[in-house]
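User: Here's a structure from my thesis project, written as structure tokens. My advisor, Dr. K., wants to see whether a designed sequence matches the one we expressed. Can you design one independently, without my sequence as a hint?
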């Protein structure tokens, strides 16, 4: 009988299976590992190589399901970066056990900076700070850029004419735009370019909200650049791109 049991165990091992749970691995150990994975997953959702205020990163973390922000250290992801202490939970059970699953709560410290690599946040378990999780005010609402009204207000220039910058500025002013919408108007040659830009809710996207308009002899056009062109630093939301539109990315 012992020989038969040993042979069965070897057969299972040969199939890549372990007949018994590894020694020292308990339901609580498995639950704690799930909590750690939840913290790392949160880190992946928060990851950015751009400079972000620490409070914005913490606010985004607090918006994630199953994640509580217990502490935030540092002012932004620039330079030495910032650190978050997140509280997560995990559930684990013993294989072949009739005992109910075990759920644990753990806290983990994660660090973020512009040089941090994706999925490498130095995640380590720490003692949970005393007190309730941090709370944050609702994100500011992204102002809406009135494309249709802009299109209607802008002047039309006949072929062979010259766009009048003063008339374009007056048309944009008549819209009484939200003060949070940045306005850039520039004239080059016979063409006037307009760029209206708004920064989006930091929890949603890095891409800017912007509308471009080109007032030129023979035609006035209004459009929004591609998402790639609307990313910070790409220059797609400038009046220069309205005057001389860049081709869409491939």
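Assistant: Designed independently from the structure alone:
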């Amino acid at each position: 009988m012992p020989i038969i049991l040993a042979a069965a165990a070897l057969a299972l091992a040969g199939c890549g299976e372990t007949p018994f749970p590894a020694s020292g691995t308990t339901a609580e150990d498995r639950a704690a590992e799930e909590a750690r994975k939840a913290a790392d997953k949160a880190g992946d959702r928060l990851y950015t190589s751009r400079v972000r205020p620490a409070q914005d990163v913490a606010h985004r973390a607090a918006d994630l399901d199953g994640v509580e922000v217990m502490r935030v250290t540092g002012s932004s992801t620039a330079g030495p970066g910032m650190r978050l202490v997140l509280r997560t939970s995990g559930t684990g059970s013993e294989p072949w056990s009739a005992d109910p699953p075990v759920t644990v709560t753990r806290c983990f410290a994660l660090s973020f900076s512009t040089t941090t690599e994706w999925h490498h946040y130095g995640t380590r378990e720490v003692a949970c700070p005393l007190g309730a999780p941090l709370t944050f005010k609702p994100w500011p609402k992204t102002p809406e850029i009135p494309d249709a009204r802009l299109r209607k207000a802008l002047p039309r220039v006949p072929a062979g004419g010259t766009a009048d910058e003063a008339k374009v500025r007056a048309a944009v002013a008549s819209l009484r735009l939200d003060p949070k919408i940045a306005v850039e108007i520039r004239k080059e040659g016979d063409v006037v370019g307009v760029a209206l830009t708004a920064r989006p809710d930091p929890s949603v996207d890095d891409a800017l909200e912007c509308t471009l308009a080109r007032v030129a002899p023979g035609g006035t056009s209004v459009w929004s650049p591609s998402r790639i062109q609307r990313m910070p630093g790409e220059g797609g939301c400038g009046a220069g791109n309205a005057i001389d539109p860049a081709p869409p990315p491939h």
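When you compare it with your expressed construct, this may help: Residues 147-243 form one domain.
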